[in-house]
Design brief:
Distance between the termini: 29 Å
Radius of gyration: 15 Å
Bound molecules: zinc ion
Strand content: 25-35%
Mean pLDDT: 90
Largest sheet: 2 strands, antiparallel
Helix content: 10-25%
Number of helices: 1
Number of domains: 1
Amino acid sequence: MITRCWWCDAEAVRLCDVLIGCERRKSSNTLIVGEPYTCDAAFCADHGRQIGHVCGNEPDSIDACCEHRGIGAVRLPDLATSKEASDKVRSAIRAKARRQLMRLVMP
Ligand SMILES: [Zn+2]
Ligand SMILES: [Zn+2]
């Protein structure tokens, strides 16, 4: 099974690695940062770009989707603070991508 790009019909080659949320809990006066949530949008070679590189034992590229390639990173105060909120951000990006795709198909 191949994954399709969210922004067109091409085969997706990468997933967006941009952080969109991070679980945050306050315990007395300590801020506990939990699980990070990444965008995970699937995109083809045309609808995203590499924005960074992870060095070390497991080198990997850091990629950004069509929505995030211009900004690179979401500002810390804008990060979602729960899994539910991150899911909402993700589906909003997906809905926007779908609207763009529809405009492309039906001018
Ligand atoms: Zn695409
Ligand atoms: Zn993204």
